[in-house]
Amino acid sequence: MRNLDRRLVLRLHRIGGATAVLLVLIVLGSCLYTWLALGYPPSTARDVAHAVLGGLVTIVLLTKMAIANWFRQYMSLTLPLGISAGMLLLGSFLLTALPYFLGWL
Fold first, then answer.
1. pTM, to two decimals
2. CA end-to-end span of the chain, whole Å?
3. pLDDT value at position 1?
4. N- or C-end of the chain: fewer Cβ atoms within 10 A?
5. Which of 81, 61, 56 is nearest to 16 (CA)?
6. DSSP for residue 101
7. Is residue 51 within 8 Å of residue 42, measured between CB atoms?
8. Distance CA 30, CA 13 (A)
């Protein structure tokens, strides 16, 4: 890692984070459209847990992005927020997508 340009790594990290936030917002919009416009609300506890975890992932990622861009005095919170977002995303995956991949549903 010593041979990498620090500015390039920081720029790539920022682009990757912005891309992740954009993808999360697209998925959030799709879920809200399905729920509100098409009339398919979460019906099982698993669906509700998925919705709650997805909403928390969005809030945590947007908070981390706001701190990194505008509230630099709180930069010490970005690592715990990133870890929290990853754990919430993993929890959402384990509750919803994994059963489909394993054929449980």
1. 0.79
2. 44
3. 56
4. N
5. 61
6. H
7. yes
8. 26
Residue 38 Cα distances to 27, 30, 32, 46, angstroms: 15, 11, 9, 20
Looking at this protein, which amino acid is placed at residue 64? K
Structure tokens at 11: 């720029």
Residue numbers of the chain with a pLDDT score lower than 50: none
User: Which amino acid, residue 50?
Assistant: H
Could you give the CA distance from residue 37 to residue 100 in angstroms, rounded to a whole number? 25
- CA–CA dist 35, 104 (Å, integer): 24
CA-based nearest residue to 21, from 50, 73, 71, 57: 57
| Confidence at residue 93, expressed as pLDDT on a 0 to 100 scale | 85
DSSP assignment of 11-75 equals HHHHHHHHHHHHHHHHHHHHHHIIIIIS-----SHHHHHHHHHHHHHHHHHHHHHHHHHT-GGGG
